[in-house]
Specification:
alpha/beta, 7-stranded mixed sheet, binds NADP nicotinamide-adenine-dinucleotide phosphate, single chain, 25% helix, 6-stranded parallel sheet
Length: 346
């Protein structure tokens, strides 16, 4: 038997507004290999995925599933290593890198059949959390299946420099769209334009109202908007409706501007429905989980793009298990570029 000292971040209090340390308690436990039942593995966490959906699940409101239960380990995806395995039939071995969903704990026991094996000789293992993970899955299927892009069409992407956004803009360039990226700093818009080849950009913080945003959009989209990939909602999205073209497709992937309490502000959407009518536009919500069983399809197309450098990616990696709650809050201040990850210093 081998025992490990374990630390867990327990989610203990629902946030009303921004999430922070006060909504969590750090707990110390031990975990040992004798606890492994047949079909289970003991995983050492190395990289934690930090995602906006964590805040949605904390809201206690009616979403796609029950709110995150209180007094349990904060859920989340993790890239880690197998320390012990109790499964005679598995091809996985001690030392293998895997993607799993044990949440915010340094060690965890998981079901072997829920693990995805990662090959560090092919691409860095952290890509399984971002550019070749769940954010890429919704970027790929959300854009292609709900967006139905045609060559030469104009796409606008909000939250364009984040994990989902930077995948969408690059997939869209590959598919021949004219791409406009909206993000919250000059550093981010410069990266979008100069490194990712986005056609035009808007720093939304310089245009902090729907009317100012509309003027900016008119400047960069003189022929209107055919597809809008929405990661943020709020006034940016309100402004988009003013410019949509005939048969426009509006893809609602995220509404991060509304997650930290903003959901209680009056919903503006219905005021814009007449614009949808005139343009025979469609608006569709998309969820990554609806494409879980098509992960391989996305990986087959996108892995070569990433390996060959056709698609770039960025990761913001914060060191320290103890910094997990602070890292989650960073998302709501735009302190990440690309995928936000916390690395454990074992
Ligand atoms: P991310 O974009 O890497 O990080 C969040 C970014 O949102 C921040 O860096 C910040 O960038 C921006 N932001 C924060 N507050 C904002 C505000 N009030 N207004 C405008 N922008 C704001 O996160 P992600 O994982 O890629 O997720 C992006 C969106 O997609 C989120 O809304 C998320 O919930 C959604 N999502 C949906 C699915 C699904 O299945 N539907 C799956 C994954 C993610 P700036 O500096 O540009 O402000």
């Amino acid at each position: 038997m081998t025992a490990f000292k374990n630390r867990q971040w327990i989610y203990t209090k629902r946030p009303e507004k921004l999430v922070d340390n006060s909504h969590y308690t750090l707990k110390e436990t031990t975990i040992d290999t004798s606890q492994l039942k047949p079909g289970q593995a003991l995983i050492k966490s190395e990289y934690f995925s930090i995602d906006p959906y964590m805040r949605i699940q904390q809201s206690g409101k009616d979403t796609w599933e029950e709110p995150h239960p209180l007094n349990t380990v904060q859920g989340g995806a993790v890239v880690g290593k197998i320390m012990a395995i109790n499964d005679l039939h598995s091809t996985l071995e001690i030392g293998d890198w895997v993607l799993s969903y044990p949440g915010w704990q340094e060690y965890a026991i998981t079901e072997v059949n829920s693990l995805r094996k990662l090959d560090p000789s092919e691409v860095p293992v952290t890509t399984a959390l971002g550019i070749l993970g769940m954010p890429a899955r919704i970027a790929y299927f959300g854009f292609i299946e709900a967006g139905k892009p045609k060559k030469g069409e104009t796409l606008v992407v909000s939250g364009a420099s984040g994990a989902v956004g930077l995948a969408v803009v690059q997939i869209a360039k590959i598919k021949g769209c004219r791409v406009i990226g909206i993000a919250g700093s000059d550093e981010k818009t410069k990266y979008l334009k100069e490194t990712l080849g986005v056609d035009d950009v808007i720093n939304y913080k310089k245009h902090p109202s729907a009317s100012e945003m509309k003027n900016e959009l008119l400047r960069v989209c003189p022929d209107g908007i055919d597809i809008y990939y929405d990661n943020v909602g709020g006034y940016i999205t309100d402004a988009i409706f003013e410019l949509i073209n005939l048969n426009a497709r509006i893809i609602i992937c995220g509404q991060i501007s509304q997650y930290s309490g903003g959901l209680d502000t009056p919903e503006l959407g219905p005021r814009f429905l007449h614009k949808m009518l005139y343009k025979r536009a469609t608006i569709q919500g998309v969820l990554a989980r609806d494409y879980n069983d098509r992960m391989d399809e996305m990986l087959e197309e996108m892995t070569p793009w990433v390996k060959d450098g056709l698609i770039h990616y960025k990761e913001t990696i914060i060191p320290g298990f103890e910094n997990l709650p602070d890292a989650l809050q960073m998302l709501f201040f735009g302190k990440n570029m690309g995928k936000l990850i916390v690395k454990v210093n074992h």
